[in-house]
From TrEMBL:
One of its GO terms (molecular function) is endonuclease activity. Pfam families: Mrr_cat. The keyword Hydrolase applies. It comes from Streptomyces pratens. Transmembrane segments: none annotated. This is Restriction endonuclease. It comes from the Bacteria. Residues 53-159 form the Restriction endonuclease type IV Mrr domain. Keywords: Endonuclease, Hydrolase, Nuclease.
Length: 192
């Protein structure tokens, strides 16, 4: 009887120790996830600060480099006077032709519906785009996002640009419902 009681007591102590270790492990895992998320936010912010410091041509080269990184082929930066809204062109990994319009604006600016409408008028008709993509270093207005959704344009604003910069592939953004996602609120010049 004494041996059974001793074995039961040892099992109870072992179970209590194991439960405590599991709880401690979960706390550590939560703390580590929070630390990694905070570090990712800081890293994205640092990299977006670099984006806002770029000039227009550097921004176009940066976008072209992201396209190449994601397996796009025949990627060309064609921006400049008379580009008719095509700053970067190429082919997605699945063979569809894409055309990108880049706007490197200050973070407190917005891209409005007029810019999106102009791009829509040239992307497919002039450049033969299967996938028109508009990339901005700021946010899009609500009317711009709604127009883009109706006309199947891919919009990548400053928020999505941070994800793209940190490894999310371009193809992940192509089917987003842009009219319902994101925000159209301007960032403040001193926003962190």
């Amino acid at each position: 009887m004494g041996t059974v009681l001793l074995v039961a007591l040892a099992a109870a102590v072992a179970a209590a120790v194991a439960a405590g270790l599991v709880r401690a492990g979960r706390r550590e895992a939560r703390a580590e996830r929070a630390r990694l998320a905070e570090e990712a936010r800081r890293q994205a912010r640092r990299s977006l600060d670099a984006v806002w410091a770029m000039d227009d041509r550097e921004f176009e080269r940066y976008v072209a480099d992201l396209c190449r990184r994601d397996g796009c082929t025949d990627v060309t930066r064609v921006g400049g006077a008379g580009d008719l809204g095509a700053d970067v062109t190429g082919y997605l990994p699945d063979g569809r032709r894409f055309v990108v319009q880049c706007k490197r604006y200050a973070k407190h600016r917005t891209v409005g519906s007029r810019d999106i409408q102009t791009f829509n008028g040239t992307a497919r008709a002039e450049h033969g785009a299967d996938v028109p993509v508009f990339v901005a270093s700021c946010v899009f207005t609500k009317p711009a996002r709604e127009f883009a959704a109706r006309h199947r344009l891919c919009l990548i604003d400053v928020n999505l640009l941070g994800f793209w910069n940190n490894g999310t592939p371009l193809t992940s953004f192509l089917d987003l419902d842009i009219s319902r996602s994101g925000t159209h609120r301007k960032l403040h010049p001193d926003h962190d």
